[in-house]
Design brief:
Blueprint (H helix, E strand, L loop, with lengths): L1 E5 L8 E5 L9 E10 L3 H7 L12 E2 L3 E9 L11 E5 L11 E5 L3 E3 L6 H5 L2 H14 L7 E4 L5 H12 L3 E6 L4 H7 L3 E4 L5 H4 L3 E6 L5 H5 L3 E9 L6 H6 L4 H20 L3 E4 L6 H12 L7 E6 L3 H9 L6 E5 L2
Parallel strand pairs: 9-10, 9-12, 10-11, 12-13, 13-14, 15-16
Antiparallel strand pairs: 1-2, 1-4, 3-5, 3-7, 3-16, 5-6, 6-8
Length: 333
């Protein structure tokens, strides 16, 4: 079968289409014929070696975290799925990849595809959906009437998180460029700051939570708009000691991540704000709940561009420019 693989870390030109063996499912796995794979920024970061100390791959490794497709074979202990089922799933942090003609998926990472979505739409959802779900419901515990700030509202995470936050009853503030103001408003954003004209920290006030999606000093600036007792959930770092301990990393990594996050933790503490870093985890049960929201029309996929599988490298390069409105998806068939 054909797969998009990387052979070495940090070497330009090491990402390529290659022939790889078709895998056989273990007892608790399903084999999925991939119809589409959604791309995420981390798919570009992994082959550069950015997360090499944290994410483990046997090289050459297949890239891609999100997929939608049809089950063609199930392991002997699988009970939730059968051949012919249309499913979607996130493979992030599982040591395998989605940018292939066939992919192994643990049974507990998959969910049935919402029937009102095609495979391209479904493939755009898993990582941004699960990330938003775990950040807003589990970590921030967002409540009706609270105010949530989501910078970069027109991006992959932003377009989903705005809709989920509105479904949860929150008021949402976001930033975007002039050309995307109408898009984020259509998704439910209440306060929209055009970052080309204003600084969000000069405009927004009395927020209860921030979903950190932008690198640089945006996290520190966001402390100015938060009330005491608020929460910052960062998807972009700095990584913290709690994250290292949760992954059972060695004591040096716990110390290192604690050192990396010391500045923001100290500044957040002075403001009475809780800071934490979130690394999304695959979860088929949560994905099924997200699927119900999609089925009911409470959330809609936002897709910027679809590439054929033969142009998967070009799709990653396009995503890396950081200008996509919503998600970039690779279509296998």
């Amino acid at each position: 079968m054909r797969s998009l693989v990387f052979k070495r870390y940090g070497k330009p030109g090491q990402v390529m289409l290659a022939d790889t063996p078709q895998p056989t499912p273990k007892p608790t796995e399903i084999l999925v014929q991939v119809h589409a794979a959604g791309l995420n920024p981390i798919d570009n970061m992994i082959p550069k070696g950015t997360f090499k100390p944290i994410l483990r791959f046997d090289l050459p490794a297949t890239l891609g975290s999100d997929l939608a497709g049809v089950v063609v074979e199930v392991g002997s202990r699988v009970t939730r799925f059968k051949p012919g089922d249309a499913v979607f799933a996130s493979l992030f942090d599982l040591g395998t990849g989605a940018l292939a003609e066939f992919a192994l998926v643990p049974e507990d990472a998959a969910a049935l595809k919402p029937p009102n979505l095609d495979f391209v739409q479904a493939a755009s959802i898993p990582m941004v959906g699960l990330t938003s779900w775990q950040a807003l419901k589990e970590r921030a515990r967002l409540k009706p009437g609270q105010k949530l700030f989501i910078p970069a509202g027109a991006g992959g995470i932003g377009t989903f998180a705005i809709q989920l936050a509105k479904y949860l009853g929150a008021k949402v503030g976001t930033t975007t460029s002039t050309g995307n103001v109408d898009l984020v408003r259509s998704l439910g954003a209440d306060e929209v700051v055009d970052y080309k004209k204003q600084e969000f920290e000069d405009v927004l006030r009395d927020y209860d939570a921030v979903l950190g999606t932008v690198r640089g000093d945006a996290i520190e600036k966001s402390l100015r708009i938060l009330k005491p007792g608020s929460t910052v959930v960062s998807l972009v770092g700095p990584l913290d000691a709690a994250f290292a301990r949760a992954r059972r990393l060695n004591i040096f990594m716990v110390f290192l991540f604690g050192l990396m996050s010391r500045k923001i933790m100290r500044r957040a503490g002075k403001c009475g704000v809780a800071y934490s870093f979130l690394f999304v985890r695959p979860d088929g049960r949560q994905l099924a709940e997200i699927g119900e929201l999609l089925k009911a029309g409470h959330i809609r996929p936002v897709i910027d561009k679809v590439f054929p599988f033969e142009q998967a490298k070009e799709a990653l390069a396009y995503l890396d420019k950081g200008r996509a409105k919503g998600k970039v998806v690779v279509q296998m068939k």
